[in-house]
Design brief:
This protein is an alpha/beta fold. The protein is built from 17 helices and 13 strands. The protein is globular and about 75 Å long.
Length: about 475
């Protein structure tokens, strides 16, 4: 029930203090002709309403959340405590820089840490999310080619296993997309990539978008050859940082040959997922792209930190300096772990994924037959669907009855009945064992009682929804009487 439906005429609560300044009445033409549709409720009823709604939501703080490629790791409370300090929350971006030295130091130290982790030279914190960072990185590549007079370079190569935001970001940047197929191991088909770059289209290639490890949770063994091929035809290589949690502190995109990178602070560096905001998708680049960075970057002059606009800045991607408090949280995480802890986090993420994959492969088919995965792995339920009629969607819905958030479904698109599992490093072995037991039980249930899974979930506040109908005919407005 919506809060509007719980409203009762005449009920209310005193929240706002009495007005202590002269009341100004706006002219009639600027006034509302109808009263606002505000619910009238007692404070206790409002509190109970939102508490009940919160109890129905599932997050990392409620239970296992193995959402592949989204890195739903636990967000330490110390991050929130640091970002809640008044010396961070009470600053204003238009203050004199002399009064903002501490905040500028946060940006400078975070940039230095991210440069060390990624092998980049400079970072901008303006982008507000991962896809926003992708768009920014592509604009950097575009600006670089235009500055060199390469106006014909308007095509971006995107693997078939890439995130859907990759081709969308390329189109937004005014480029067209060339899709390249994966090989039988789930990695980039090097020979097909070479054919594209050495063919007639080679002079039109602006760059390649890639994440490594890729969406199948596999580290591409040919990554140095791949970046060399792109550079050989005059293109740039863009690193989608979605899967950096598998390699941070162990391997660096810059050392692999990538020219720019976006990072998801809400994934890799333990800041909360946005759910509408605020997020952060900072973009780093090598020195040859740094002069095109958007907004302002920090530099030290005469013993003080100042903001400097890059020489050929592509403009503004967001107002001021991005979502600053999200950066504060990420820096807290980095400082709490230190260099050894950052590497250990990645190693434990990889260990947890391999533990689950090894335990489940006796029943579930692993999409790409590899002994070792990175931070995530993909199960292919095509055989289970053929033998029992139970789909990946059915298994995912069955997990809800056990208090487990489903893995990513039907992605990557190269696997038709895919469940992509990413346990992250913050889960204990006991939690993993419980999840493995549940998944094994659902597998057995698919053979003994498939209808039970077709109707799942059974214990959640809302049962199986008509997802196709909701997508095609969404109800986005409340109809007041």
């Amino acid at each position: 029930m919506l809060i509007f439906e719980k409203s009762r005429e005449g009920r209310g609560c005193s929240i706002l203090p009495p007005c202590d300044v002269e009341v100004y009445e706006a002219a009639p033409e600027f006034s509302r002709q109808k009263p606002l549709h505000l619910p009238q409720m007692a404070e206790v009823d409002i509190e109970r309403h939102y508490t009940q709604l919160a109890a129905k939501a599932h997050g990392v703080n409620d239970g296992f959340y193995p959402l592949g490629s989204c890195t739903m790791k636990y967000n330490p409370r110390v991050n929130e405590q640091t970002a809640s300090m008044s010396k961070f929350t009470h600053v204003h971006p238009l203050q004199p820089l002399d009064t903002l030295q501490g905040s500028l130091q946060v940006l400078q130290e975070t940039e230095k840490a991210l440069n060390a982790i990624t092998g980049m030279s400079r970072f901008t914190f303006q982008p507000a999310a991962g896809a926003h960072g992708e768009f920014t990185g592509l604009l950097l590549i575009k600006a670089y080619h235009l500055a060199n007079g390469d106006t014909q370079r308007t095509k971006i190569i995107v693997p078939d296993s890439a995130h859907g935001t990759n081709p969308a970001s390329a189109v937004m940047a005014g480029m067209s997309v060339i899709n390249t197929a994966s090989d039988e191991r789930g990695c980039v088909d090097v020979e097909k990539l070479r054919q594209i770059c050495e063919g007639e289209e080679g002079k039109e290639i602006a760059g390649l978008m890639l994440t490594n490890p890729n969406t199948a949770g596999l580290f591409d063994p040919n990554i140095l050859e791949i970046t060399e091929i792109i550079h050989g035809c005059g293109g740039q290589v863009y690193y989608d940082g979605a899967n950096l949690n598998a390699i941070m502190g162990v391997a660096r995109p810059g050392d692999m040959g990538f020219d720019c990178v976006h990072l998801n602070l809400h994934k890799t560096f333990s800041t909360p997922h946005g759910g509408g905001g605020p997020g952060a998708g900072p973009v780093g680049c090598k020195e040859h792209l740094a002069k095109f960075l958007p907004g302002l970057v920090t530099e030290e002059k005469d013993g003080k930190l100042v903001f400097v606009k890059p020489e050929q800045s592509l403009g503004e991607m967001k107002n001021f300096y991005g979502n600053f408090l999200v950066v504060v949280k990420a820096l807290t995480y980095i400082k709490m772990l230190g260099a050894e802890g950052i590497a250990a986090a990645s190693e434990n993420a990889v260990l947890n994924a391999n533990y689950m994959m090894a335990k489940l492969r006796d029943k579930y088919d692993i999409a790409f037959d590899t002994k070792i995965c990175m931070h995530e792995f993909v199960m292919d339920l095509s055989r289970l669907l053929k033998e029992t009629g139970v789909s990946a969607m059915d298994i995912a819905k069955g997990l809800l009855d056990h208090g487990i958030h489903p893995p990513t479904m039907y992605f990557p698109l190269t696997v038709h009945e895919a469940l992509m599992v990413e346990p992250t490093e913050t889960e204990s072995r006991e939690t993993l064992d419980e999840a493995i037991q549940v998944l094994e039980g659902l597998y057995d249930l698919a053979f003994s009682d498939p209808e039970a899974l077709h109707d799942a979930p059974h214990t959640t506040p809302v049962s199986r929804l008509d997802e196709v109908g909701a997508a095609r005919h969404p109800v986005l407005r409340y109809a007041f009487e």
